[in-house]
Automatic annotation (TrEMBL):
This is TetR/AcrR family transcriptional regulator. Keywords: DNA-binding. The lineage of its organism: Bacteria, Bacillati, Actinomycetota, Actinomycetes, Streptosporangiales. It comes from Nocardiopsis coralli. Pfam families: TetR_N. Residues 1-30 are annotated as: Disordered. Residues 52-71 bind DNA.
Length: 217
């Protein structure tokens, strides 16, 4: 039985209850937040298959009963966490992109600086986004496509709309795939390389490819 299958009367009674001066919704939000925080810490440190629901509940200090009120299982928790982390990362990259850049160099340097900076400041998030999630290869492909779409939208700030949309999308995806693999390698090796040099390399490669695409129309 999933959390949606509970009798409606029981759900209604729970929602109307108050304990310790906090409503059911407030207590549930706090439990959900603690479960996600615990999952982030555990999934960043260990492969997904080595982390149990009991581990998450113990770290979050939340009962299994309350866990299953919020999530169907570990995979449901990870899907929710992974989705939120990707949204957080994309919002940060979007903020890093200048609104009115002088050209491709300024635009991509802002985007790459935000990308690398956020991951370096939050290594646990970096590992969950790119390394330790279940079915990682499938998730990476979806993530790279979404990243390419984001970069494509932001590139419109300096580039005209392409005449060959399919070719443009494929080149964008190839660019993002290469950059993502470099970022993953950097994360897997403990982020010990100079982040400024990494930003330079990612920016240079991206700008070179985008200028070629621009020249070809």
């Amino acid at each position: 039985m999933t959390r949606q299958d509970r009798p409606s009367a029981a759900r209604g009674a729970a929602r109307n209850s108050t304990y310790g001066g906090r409503s059911h919704e407030e207590r549930a939000a706090d439990r959900r937040s603690r479960l996600k925080d615990a999952a982030l810490e555990l999934f960043a440190a260990r492969p997904f298959d080595e982390v149990t629901v009991a581990d998450v509940c113990s770290r979050a200090r939340v009962s299994k009963r309350h866990f299953y009120e919020e999530f169907d299982d570990r995979r449901d928790l990870m899907r929710c966490l992974h989705r939120e982390l990707i949204d957080w990362l994309f919002e940060g990259i979007h903020r890093g992109a200048p609104e009115n850049p002088d050209g491709l160099e300024e635009l991509f340097r802002g985007m790459m600086s935000a990308w690398v900076g956020l991951l370096r400041e939050h290594p646990d998030r970096a590992r969950v986004i790119y390394i330790n999630a279940p079915r990682m290869e499938m998730r990476r492909r979806g993530l790279m496509r979404r990243t390419a779409e984001l970069f494509g939208r932001l590139s419109r700030r300096v580039l005209d709309r392409p005449r060959d949309r399919v070719r443009n999308e494929r080149v964008q995806l190839a660019m993002v795939s290469g950059c993502t693999q470099v970022v993953i390698d950097w994360i897997e090796r403990g982020m010990v390389d100079d982040p400024d040099a990494l930003v330079d390399h990612l920016t240079g490669a991206s700008v070179a490819l985008m200028r070629h695409l621009e020249a070809e129309g």
